[in-house]
Structure formats: C-alpha cells, structure tokens
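Hi R.,

Quick one: here's the WD repeat-containing protein 11 sequence you asked about.
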Amino acid sequence: MIPYTVNIKLAARTLTGTLNLQNKTAVDWGWQGLIAQGCHSSILIIDPKTSQTIQVLERHKANVVKVKWCRENYHHSLSAPYSLRLASADAAGKIIVWDVVSGTAHCEIQEHSKPIQDMDWLWTQDASRDLLLAVHPPNYIVLWNGDTGTKLWKKSYAENILSFSFDPFEPSNLALLTSEGIVFISDFSHSKPPGSGGKKVYIASPHASPAHTKPVPAVAPAPTGAKKALNKVKVLITNEKPTVEAVTLNADCLQLSYLPSKRNHMLLLYPREILILDLELSQTVGVVAIERSGVPFIQVIPCAQRDALFCLHENGCITLRVCRSTNAPDESGAATDPEQCVQELVYDLRSQCDAIRVTKTVRPYRMVICPVNENNAALAVSDGRVMLWELKAHVAKPALNPCSGLSPLYSPVAFCGSPLGQNQKKIQDLSLNTMIGQSLVLGADPPPGSPQQEVQLKFLLTGLLSGLPLPPFALRMCPPLTTKNINHYQPLLAVGTSNGSVLVYNLTSGLLHKDLSVHSCEVKGIEWVSLTSFLSFATSSPNNAGLVRNELQHVDLPTGRCFAFRGERGNDEPAIEMMKVSHLKQYLVVVFRDKPLELWDVRTGTLLREMAKSFPTVTALEWSPSHNLKSLKKKQMLAREAMARQTTLSDAEQSSVESSVISLLQDAESKSEGGGQAISAREHFVFTDTDGQVYHITVEGNMVKDGARIPPDGSMGSIACIAWKGDTLVLGDVDGNLNFWDLKARLSRGIPTHRGWVKKIRFAPGKGNQKLLVMYTDGAEVWDTKEVNMVSSLRIGRNVNYRILDIDWCTSDKVVLASDDGCIRVLEMAMKSASYRMDEQDLTDPVWCPYLLLPRAALTLKAFLLLQPWSGTFTMDISQVDYIEKDEIKGLIQEQLNSMSNDMKSVLQDPELNLLQRCLLVSRLFGDESDLQFWTVAAHYLQSFAQAHQLSLSVPEGQAPLEGTQTTPQGHLDICHDTLCESFYFQRFQLERVHLQEVKRSSYEHTKKCADQLLLLGQTDRAVQLLLETSADNPSYYCDSLKACLVTTITSSGPSQSTIKLVATNMIANGKLAEGVQLLCLIDKAADACRYLQTYGEWNRAAWLAKVRLNPAESSDVLKRWAEHLCSPQVNQKSKAILVLLSLGCFHKVGEMLHSMRYFDRAALFIEACLNFGVMEANDSSNKLISAAFVDYARLLRSLGLREGAAFWASRAGDAGEQLLEELFEGEEAVPVPEEEEEETEALENAE
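And here's the predicted structure, written out as tokens:
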C-alpha cells in the first residue's frame, strides 16, 4: 500500500459545472498546449494531455463570452519569456488579460457595457507581442495593447459586426462578417485605424446576378444529388443592394474564416454546407454539402498543415474532411477529357468520431483543435464535459473494392523534416503533416518503389473531463482532521445532487473520488457518521395529500454499499425536514414536517423512540458538544484492570490461558471503539418550537429524559437554526437576528443583521475555534463569536453575482459554498473568490508545460533538450549536467522532464536524431510558433541545397536549385508556406488554381480575371480562347478581340518589342499598372514587370510573378529586394524576411541577421546546422560570424547557469571564446566558486 500523506492545507479552488449559453463560444486551445474555457463568470484552464483542470480564473462579474490565448509567434528570450497570457471577455463588455500562472490580471479593459462579439491577438508579433483586436457591439472594432490596457485606435462601421478573421498570409488583410454581408479591409495596421470603410461584399446566388453563358462540356454528366447542390453555388458579388434572397443567405452564415493552408481562400459556413471561396475571383470553388438526412454543421476549423477541415455537427460528431488531390493537367493545354478536368475542390470525409446523446440540456457547444499538431480536438458540451479526441493513423490494408471513390492517403517517410535514419526511432502521429503525406495534394501517384505507407485515420477518445450536474446541491464536509485520524485522513466533500446521486470529491486534488447513485429524487441533506460513511436523505415531490416518499440511506464509501436506514418506513408520510447526528456519532434525530421526531441509534440502526403526538413542532435542533464519554471510559478501565488482575492470579499456573484472556480483552476493546454496545455515553440536544421555547433533552443508551425549558426571547422571531460549540450557543431567526448565548457566564446578546432569514449556521472545526459561518438568502457571513463581530461578508449583487445554495466549513480556515451558477467554491475565510497560483497546486498527474516554469528555467530546459548529448551522453536527468541553480528550480525542471511521454524521451535520447530534427521537435514541444516556422523552412532548404552541392552543381548563393535536383524526400515545401515554396511547385499550384477558376467563372468579370491570370502565367493559347468568348454586345468586345489578336501575333522582332515596352511603361506611368505588367509579360520582360510592381508597392504581386515567370537568378533578385523591404523599419517583418532569404539559400545572410537581432540561440544552432550540411564553408568572412555567434550563445548559456554548455560553445569560437573560457573557469583550479558569488556575478552581467 502507498503510504498516505495528508495535505492539511487545502488550496482554494472552484469545482465547476454546467455551462451557460453565453459561454458557448468561450473556448480556445493555445500554442502553449492548454485549453481555456469559460464557465459562467470563471475561466477553466485545462491540460488536455492529462485531462485535468489546473487553474480556475475568477475576476469577471458577468458570463465569459470569449477567451483567446496569446500567440507565440516571436523569438523567446529572457526579455520576451515563455509566459501564459490569456485574454477573456465577458457579457458586460469587460476584457481581462491574465497572467495565468499567478492567476492575476495584467490589465482590465472596458469600452462599452455590451457583450464582446469577437476578439483575437494579432499574429504578427515582430512589432509588438501585445496587440489585441476586439469587436465592441454594435459596430466598433478597437485595437488594444493587451499588456497595458491602452487603446491604440477605434473605428466604427455601418453595419453590426458579428465576427472577424485575420488573413494568415497578409497581416494587413482582415474580413468582418456583418449582419448584411462581408467587409474586406486591406489596410489594417497597428499604427492607425483603417482609412476607408472597407470593401463591402454581399452573398448572392448566381441567379440573382446577370447570367453569363458558359460553354457546356460536350459530355455533361447527369447531375446527382450532390451535383444538384453544386448547381446552387453561391458567389460573392459587390453590387450595392442585395436581393431578398441574398439577405437570407447572409443571415444563415454561421462563420467566416480564411484558409490557413492556401493563400486568398476563405470558407463560409452554413448549417447545411461549407463554401470555399477563391477571393481573387470572388467565387465559390468548392462546396461541402450535407445530404438531406445528414446532421447540420455548427462549426468548422480549417487546418494549416494540410488542406483539411475539422467540422462539428449538431449531434456532437467531429468529422475530418481532407481535400481530394486534383490531377494537374499537362502544361501543353487543358485536359482533353472534361471528366478528368478539375471541376472543383472536393473535401472527402476521412474520419469521424462518435456522436453524443443530445437532449434539452446536453448539446455540443464548440470544438477546438491543437494549433501545434492539428491532430487533437476537444469538444465542449453544455453540461460541462470536455471530450478530448485524438486522431490516429494506422496502416491500411489495400482496399478490396478500389471503386469506393476515395483515393488512398499516404503517410510521409520523413520525420521532423528529414529522412528517417535506418534505426531511427520516431513518434507515431506527431502532427497532422506527419500523418498524411503531400502526395494527396499534388495528385501525382507516389513514385514506384517509394516506401510510403497507405494509412487510414481514426478518432480515439483519449480524455474526458466532467463537471458538476445542475444545481441545487446539498454539501457536507467529512468530519474534521484530528491528531487521532491524521494518518489516514482524506478531505472528502459529499455533494448531494438534484438527480439523487451523491458525488464525493477529494479536495486535495479537486478530483471526483466517488460518484454514487444513492437516491431516486433530489438529495436534501447529508450527515457523515464516520470518516468513510454517511447518511443522506431525499424526498420525492408531494402527492395530493401532501405526503411524500422519504429515502434515508446509509452509505459506506470504501465498498459503496447502501442500505435503507429506516428499513421499510418512508412511503406516504410527511417529508423529512432535517436530520442531525450527535457529536459521538451514536444517535440520530430525524425531524419531519407535520409529524413528531424520531430518535435512532446509529450504531445498531434501531429506532430508540418515536415521540408522542403531543410533542411540540420542531423549528430548529442541535446536539450539544458535551457528553460523559471520558468518565465512562475511566470507570471501564478501572473495572478492566481489576478483572485482568483477578484472572491472572487465579490462573497463574496456566500461562497459556493468559494470552487468550488478553486477546479477549483486546477484542472487547475494539468493539467498544467501533461503537459497539459496550459503552453508551450520555448526549444532549436542544430544539426550539414554533413559539421560540428552547427544550433540552438527554439521551443515554435507550433512555430519553426531558430536561429544563427556557422561555422564548422576546426580541427574536421564529427560530430557524441553532449552532452549539463549547460554551457558546447561537440562535438565528427568520428576521435576520442572531442571538449569542454564553452558557458559562449565563449572558445572551442579540444582534440584528438586517439580512433576512438566517438559513444555516455552522461553527468552524478545531479546538477553541469560535468562528461561525452564517448563510442568508442573499449571501453569507463569517462571525467571530468570542468577540461577537463580523469577520467577512458576501452579498449577491454587491461582490458576487451568484446566489448561495449551501455552505459548510472544509477546514478551520476555509469555507465551501455551493452556488446557483452550478459551481462549488472552496474559499478563504475572507470569502474573496480568487484564482490560485498554479505552482502551489497539488496535481495528481504531472503536467508538461514549460510555460509554468520561471522564464529563466524554461529557457534552461529548452537549451538542455537542444544541446544533447551532454559530454557525450544522452540524458534526461538535469543533475548530471554542470548547472548552477537553486535546488528548488532544478527540481521543477526535472519534474517537467519526467512528465514527458516515454516515446518523446526515447526519441530525444536517440543518437540518430540530427540537429535539425531536434530543433523542430523541441519547438513543437514548447509550442513555439516562430521557432517551428523557422526550423521547418530551414530544415527543408538546408537539405535541398546540401543535396545540390553533393551533386556537385555549384549553385550560386541566392539561387534556388534547379527543378531536376529536387530529390529531397518531401519534394517541396507545403503550399501553406506560399511564396516560400519552390518555383516549379508554386507554378503548378497556380496553374491548377486558374483551371479551377476557369471552370467556375460565371460572369464576364470572372472570365476577364482568368484571362489576365493565364497571360501572366504564360498560358497564351488558353487566354486567347477566353478573350474570344466576349459577346458582341459587351462594351469591351472590340478591346478584347484586339488583345486576342495581339497575343497571337506577338513576335520577338526588335521594333515590336520596343513599341510594346514603350506602351507598357506609359500605361504604368498613367496608373494602369496591371495592364502594363501584362504587356511586359507578353514580351518576356517579366523581370521589368516585377520591378515596376515593387516600385508601386505591390510587393506580394511581384513575388508571385517572380515565382511563376522568372528564371532562378532573376527571381532571386526580386525576392532579395522584397526581403530588404520587409526589413525596413516601417514594415518591420524581419521574421518573414529571414524565411524568404532561407528559401533563396542565402544562409550566411540569415546567420548575420539572426545574430544582429540578438537571436543568439537560433543563430548559433542554425550556423552549426549549416556547417554540418556543408552549405557554409569556414573561410575568413564566415569565421568572423561563426565565432561571434558561438561566443554570444556561450554567454547566453552562462547567464542561464549551464556552464558545461557555455564551455563547449566557447571552445569552438576561436580567440573570443578563449577569453570566455578563462572567465568561466578562473580560479577553478584553486577554489571552486561558491554558488552565491557566482549568482551575483551573473546578475551583474545580466544588468550590464
């Protein structure tokens, strides 16, 4: 058996229950790996890996309507540490930004007093990490500084704003979903409010817009059910007044989100379909429709790592739909067979989880997915449950019937961005992009003989948190801790619920200990009769005669055995009002509404006395704490001793008998302690009748004696409750008066509290503790009965917004309150509801979350994992490393290391894991968005350039390797990296996209846009066909016909080239930029076109054009200029610039930039990786950078206390490093430096 240690100090905590409807949208899963969820006015912080609540934040007065974790898209250092920041908004318009670990508020923000409609942190964090955008009803968006609470700007719009979505590829784009349509803002910036009112767009179906006849394919397939749904495709149109039809279309729209997996795509969610829009064309390019019998959608979350959608349905089922691969048509022309031609984006259902039972009170509210790995989903249910689903991939057997229509999914071979070594360990299902390969997206079948595995996806329920059921509750804390029971005490709280079950919580951990189904109706009261058993009673609703069914059950906790304590009694009798167990747990009084009370013996379960009909009606009753147990025990001891002496004298010769006698005695002893029949101590109780007269009754064995009566006190009304402890007796009445009796001094003192009916009064446990907890209809108070004064008070409307349903003491200085918001709160005596510090908590399972550590310790932990092996050995024990720090902090770091999964530990200790893989894995573990982005792109391009080197193609720096050399295992970067992808793949993707737009176009504008795109992509034949489609009555007919002629007749003769170039430059000078660029592209002067675009500030367009049209050398010039622009102070997107330079292979420049931005850890590790892969030679120019980066990293490690690591990096940094090495180990030979001194020197260095 595990030795049971008692934690006598209970933490203040909140046990939460069902959610309010306003909490529906208040749930978020952060990069930090935790889930935040609003529950009434509190916020739960849940760890999904161990499924336990690790913090409850209390400060809001109104229901929480939105919660959002801060993004982690910045480089973390001591000045920008790993910290848990959360913004929450409530129905009264208040926003609080929390420091979650300490449970305190960074700042509180209030603009209006209406519920916040939507809010989110800005995802670009180069300029500032603290910016928060919020929608204040009805029509304002306000940008706040979430650290200081300052308002940066405010902007109002014409319509009511329902929600918004940031463009994940372009920080200046924002889309607002309003009550009438969508507003696109393209000049969003943190420095000033958007200038214009944005571009308003209405949603309408094609029938409402002027029809554009589109060529019908020769063999049109017969429309099936799904195809019919597609014929009703909705478009985006920008005309001013929408038709009636369009308005209803917009009113149904549940959600709008940009797709993070590919640029310029957006989804609109309707109850029965999801529309995928291509924003360049403002037209639907894909529809996910539900059949007539299907279950409607509530919410959809698009993934970033793959083009996939997590959808939540009304029955609580989560489905994963993955975009079907489109077979890219040959570049020679469009695909010949219309069936093969791309018709639209199709999302195939790949996996779904089980639904829940939906009732009036139980319905799914929201789903969130893990942003780091995108393979875990959590579902919040209205009854307070949180279901944690994990997506698992398992190797599929090749299908028997391949005609099922679904193309197979393949899993990638690489692990953490690098090919898997021969004996390398890997983590199964690390993230979505390691579960599904890219072959799906491109549509090319996997090359023959490649070791890809076909996989199928499944959802697994890996965790479940459940809350309290609906109120009302009846609370009772188990008997208090004493010196006798300290070795096996557990602080258990019994909670009786409205459905008849009794929940027992262990308050040390706050976890449910037992859930016992005891009664068939609402539990009205609970009384403990020992540390492990209790009595509870419930009454059914009364029949016509006013009689009920009473259930009084005795429950034994360890076994869960229940039996009816009153036997057959209980049917058709007046309701039980209360029951009271005596102090020695010998007797039980049961009080009925219109029937005399019953007195029971708890130990034997026998009825001692049923009072006569003439017995007065009881209004309040309490047992006296005094009894004669001590004197009885003394007498018994004397008798025993005598008995023992006699026995041993008479049987002196039989020593064998002696032992048996003693065992007999021990037997008797244990019986008497278990409350056998050996001793029956005398106990008393007092009660009052309807006139306020106090009766005193003595019980001994089965004797019941009537004692003295005390006449009523004139100042008191009808007595409602009594409490007795020591020499103090307190009476409370229905008018809010408290009467304190000092029995020793025979004094009484009445105090009017003016708070109405005194519902309950209870003395605190503990010897000499005379604190009293009083419950009223509108709150509670704590009184000190020694001094007769009030210690603290809680009142509805004044300092809380919930009503108190029941109260009790859980320790001598903590109270527990049940409230009508479905929560049970353990509070300090001051009854201030406060969040607790996370690091003071006793968690049952250790939680992996480096954010809980001190900033310095979190960075140390990261360095410890990144710099394995330490002095040649892989270890997960920080004490084996030369690390100068307080033991307490070392212990906390070690706890974090221990809480990692065994798989993760074995992979991190695998010598096969290369540096790039390690960096990627650690950035995933830490949920570090900026690190993850950087290392994903770095790993990809380092390997592809290294491979090009090995093929001895001397690729000049700043130029992408040629298409033929793409032999890296993953082939290309995912399209979610947009312009960072290889040109050849980017081109193919853009071509595919134009073909799709072509199929979908439904008006002249659409056709024109498609033709323009095709010209830029160099698809002249197809563009001419589109230009010739223009109908003769169209005003642009003449213009388009001439353009078609021009495109077909362009020859590369000198004069025509120069003429066209002149015309193009004139056009550009006169504001026709797009037309001029097209002409330049026609004569293969795309490089000039890019320069013009950049001059006119169209940087993204220029990058796009460079990717699809230019040769590597020209393209890299354009992109380098873009990177310089991104670094300029007014743009300030250096992190993006670094990624662009990585994709060009300018590794030396990247190293310099990282070092100059003081990202010392990233710079050193990156340069090390470059040296490992042989893409950076150690020559004079690079040596300077290498030694500077390494020595700065060594200094950083020294400031973290990792001396061994500092010495290793300093030893590789040339002359500068030698000096640092001397500093590190100066005086080491003579005397080891004591720890304190070393810390002081460190502090000084940090200050410098």
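The chain is about 25% helix and 30% strand.

Cheers,
M.
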